[in-house]
Amino acid sequence: MDFLNAIVLLANYIFIPALNYGSQLALGAIGVTLIYSVLRFANFAYGDLMAFGTMVVILVTWKLQSVGIHLGPLPTALIALPIGVMAAILISLLLDKTIFEYYRIKKSPPVTLIVVSLGVMFVLNGIVRIIIGTADRKFFDGQKFIMKANEFKEITGLSEGLALKSTQLLSLVVTIICAVLLFWFLGKTKTGKSMRAYSDNEDLALLSGIDPNRIVMITWVIAATLATIAGTLYGLDKSFKPFTYFNNLLPIFAAAIVGGIGNPLGAFFGGFVVAFAEIGITYAYKKFFIYVLPQGLEPTSLMQLLSIDYKFAVSFSILIIVLIFRPNGIFKGKII
Amino acid sequence: MYFSALNLTGGYGGVDIIHSCSFEVNKGEIVSILGPNGAGKSTAMKAMLGMLKKSTGEVQINGNDISKLSTQNRVKLGISFVPQTKNVFTEMTVEENLEMGGFLRDQTYIQTIEEIYELFPILYEKRNQLVGELSGGQRQQVAIGRALMIKPSVLMLDEPTAGVSPIVMDELFEHIIKIKEKNVAILMVEQNARQALNVSDRGYVLVMGENKYSGSGTDLLNDKEVRRSFLGG
After folding, report:
1. N or C: which end of chain B has fewer CB within 10 A?
2. A140, pLDDT greater than 60
């Protein structure tokens, strides 16, 4: 019984939250990796693009809620999502046309584009803060739990509860759908293949008659779509605060690099690697050891490797370790 | 002549690398551009494709001037190019490489893939393998196959036999002859001068960016001066 309790404990505090958080990171990391592989720079404005898209979703959600439109047990934000995606696509294309394109035509080195994207990041961040403010916003509605901890205890008779929030399931399901669609697009459609070809060998793609402007546009459309979906899922699950989205850039980059930058499948798994590492390392295992160790050996400390305040140190360490020992990632990617 | 370049002069932005070079090739003909390292052979080819930062001179296909067209638009007119390096999509399968070659084509490209498999049977065997995993000679076949996907009337090859073994080189030349028999105009830059002249109808020898000698393959092979300078006696 104690053993089962220990398993449920880990499932409740590590496995489910990490799957949830990992799926949100995975979507973001795929976006970052696609931009890297096609446009050939690390886009630091990605976190704030997520914030921008999510902001539009929130504003539309509020409007819908005020006129009494709801989606039953599902969050109203799902109706608003397409509008947020559209807004994020529009601003991405606008930023590309007005800013990034100039440096692309000039064939500026990637480091210039990174600094340019830092500038874009500050501007986007500013826009979001001016429009929606810096406060914490909650915009979730609908049914909060699929299974409450108490219900689980009653059903199973265990002393540990297992809760499953609807947003957690939603994150995972939406991420899997997005990933399947994306990999089908990249692997099976002509446009998707031409995107891979362009990322693989730009000059040869041009010689084959592939239109670079079209590839760049499609890349922004996909990246902005993924950013808004990931941002909305994250915001529904936790809350929306512009600064948090900026912070999430670090684990997202870590995920993309762990998976091998430029490799979308790697980025997908990288998201989960980072999420499991972050949550697994900052979790206090005291209760777990109380369950599994014989009486008398229980730990007195929290058995926590790292305080939750330092969770970003985990992403940062992963980033550095991977860059030192396996610079092209767990899956084969490009070397930065 | 089907495809001709007249008085090409140009370079990569600094000093000119080629000076007033002219080349001609007809359909069903193999023409080689030979010369020592740094003679401007690849540069001349890039000038014909419109890939140089600055170049003057005229490029004609079937009598039409295409000097003002971009590289991509020249490709659309049926001029296909196999670069010397990075001439395949390494992270894609053989079949996907061919598909990308036929990017501008409609559904009939599937037919062309079959024809290329007939020409290069090894590619059919390896069709689902990543090109990055193939040997040098096989990659070169993929590269040529990709270029053939637009059903080009002019095929330009930049050192197709660079870095492959002599046996593979002979094999590649045999394939190139087969392509010529399909009424394609083939223009190639080669380091392996003797072997290249053996399969060529005509040749040009470039020295210091200028046309020094030209003539039929056998003439050049028998020319004393050419033999002494470029063929090692």
Report:
1. C
2. yes
Range of the domain at A38: 2-325
pLDDT, chain A, mean: 92
Q: Stretch A103-122: mean pLDDT, rounded?
A: 94
Residue with tokens 């040997």: B135
For A275-301, write each residue's pLDDT tens digit.
999 999 999 998 888 888 888 888 888
The 10s digit of each residue's pLDDT in A232-253 is 999 999 999 999 999 999 999 9
Domain extent, residue B158, equals 3-78+152-231
Whether B191 maps to a domain, the answer reads: yes
State whether B90 and A206 contact (CB < 8 Å): no
Residues A207, B76: C-beta atoms closer than 8 Å: no
R_g of chain B computed on alpha carbons: 17
Going by pLDDT thresholds of 50, 70 and 90, the confidence category of residue A336 is very low
Query: Tens digits of per-residue pLDDT, A205-221?
Result: 999 999 999 999 999 99
In angstroms, the separation between the Cα of residue A329 and the nearest Cα of chain B is 16
Question: Quick one: closest CA in A to B147, which residue?
Answer: A208
Q: How far apart are CA B36 and CA B49, in angstroms?
A: 22
Residue A234 lies in a domain: yes
Please name which of A240, A201, A298, A184 lies closest in space to residue A54, comparing C-alpha atoms: A240
Shortest CB distance from B89 goes to which of A190, A201, A206? A201
Q: What is the spatial distance between Cα A201 and Cα B143, in angstroms, rounded to a whole number?
A: 12
H/E run at residue B206: strand B202-207
Residue B70 lies inside a defined structural domain of this protein? yes
Looking at chain A, which residue has its C-alpha nearest residue B77?
A209
CATH label of the domain that carries residue A274: 1.10.3470
| Cβ-based neighbour number of residue B201 at 10 Å | 17
CB pairs under 8 A between A and B: 57
Of the candidates B86, B90, B100, the beta carbon closest to that of A208 is on B100
Whether A330 maps to a domain, the answer reads no
CATH of the domain at B30: 3.40.50.300
Q: What's the pLDDT at B221?
A: 83
pTM of this structure: 0.91
Task: Tell whether B66 is covered by a domain.
Answer: yes
Contacts with A208 from chain B: Cβ below 8 Å: 75, 100-101, 103-104, 146, 149
Question: Residue B163 region, left (φ>0) first, then alpha (ψ -120 to 50), else beta?
Answer: left
A277 within domain boundaries: yes
Domain count, chain A: 1
Count of structural domains within chain B: 1
Q: Tell me if B175 sits within 8 A of B144, measured CB to CB.
A: yes
**Chain B residues whose beta carbon lies within 8 Å of the beta carbon of residue A201:** 86, 88-90
Query: What pLDDT, on the 0 to 100 scale, is given for residue A258?
Result: 92
